[in-house]
Specification:
This protein has 283 residues and is α/β, with parallel strands linked by helices. The chain contains ten helices and twelve strands. Helix 2 links the parallel strand 2 and strand 3.
């Protein structure tokens, strides 16, 4: 393994939205003693542990939010119904919702008011998708790919507006669009997949000859798991790990070229650490 070549994706790690969410939260913690967040601010266990050490309080039941405290709306956004619960608690709300997510929410509201049928490409159980759908009065048709599209084919009527979860794969959107064209539906496409997600995916899609792809980031992070999926689809030996010390030496036996990428919630320090860990395997 002496000649192991290690490359790091140019777009690996924190995106603008995550960086903004963390900075706003840290500022709130410094200014107020009690700052609450419902679930994870971002999908990265290491980042969340760091914020909790600084004072962020995580609650899993929104009804248990104390009154008149500071509440952080996480980067993935929230449903209007859940926000109403927060407002009833007379909370001071700090909204860290990613601007790309806000754009998708706004379009959902706009298209609903215009009487269009909304086709939302995303994971129906993800908080971001639930938040976008709530702006469409919870009446969007949600599909997570071409297979789901076939299941709701008979419901596709009138003018259709397509929007996406911001961390979806562009290839899934392309497949859905091609099928709608084939079915001759009356539709318009609004690609709300965020630029950072697109760029990260593009780097993996355009990889040259490599032996191993290391994807760093939360195992439950949508944008990170998509990167690992792309690597596996390219038939590249792919490992998705949450932290650098989850990487094992045995993976690299007989390998010459390694590429490291990371999801939008992965800090730069973890990426550098992963490179050092792999370098230490080489002797």
């Amino acid at each position: 393994m002496n000649n192991l070549e290690i490359k790091i994706a140019k777009k690996a790690g924190f995106c603008f939205g995550v960086q903004r969410a963390i900075e706003l939260t840290e500022k709130a913690i410094k200014e107020d003693k009690e700052v609450y967040c419902w679930g994870d601010l971002v999908h990265n266990p290491g980042v969340m542990k760091g914020l909790q050490k600084k004072g962020l309080r995580i609650i899993n039941d929104l009804e248990k939010l104390p009154e008149r405290k500071v509440f952080i709306v996480r980067s993935h956004g929230m449903t209007l119904e859940d926000l109403e619960i927060v407002n009833k608690k007379k909370s001071k709300v700090i909204n860290t919702t990613c601007p790309f997510v806000i754009k998708a929410q706004t379009l959902a509201s706009k298209f609903k008011e215009a009487g269009k049928q909304i086709l939302l490409l995303g994971d129906k159980n993800h908080i971001e998708v639930r938040g976008i759908n709530s702006r469409a009065e919870n009446q969007a048709l949600i599909v997570n790919g071409i297979d789901d599209l076939f299941l709701i084919k008979n419901k596709l009527k009138g003018k259709i507006a397509v929007i996406c979860q911001t961390t979806q794969k562009n290839s899934k959107l392309e497949e859905v669009v091609e099928k709608l064209k084939e079915w001759k539906n009356d539709f318009e496409v609004n690609n709300t997949i965020c630029l950072d997600t697109t760029n990260k995916q593009k780097e993996v899609l355009e990889l040259g000859e490599i032996d191993i792809l290391i994807v760093l980031g939360g195992l439950h992070s949508s944008n990170t798991t998509k990167l690992a999926e792309i690597g596996k689809n390219k038939k590249v030996k792919t490992y998705h790990v949450e932290k650098a010390f989850d990487i094992f030496k045995s993976w690299f036996e007989g390998s010459e070229r390694v590429f490291i990428t990371a999801g939008a919630s992965t800090p730069p320090s973890e990426i550098k650490k992963a490179k050092r860990v792999i370098e230490n395997f080489c002797f």
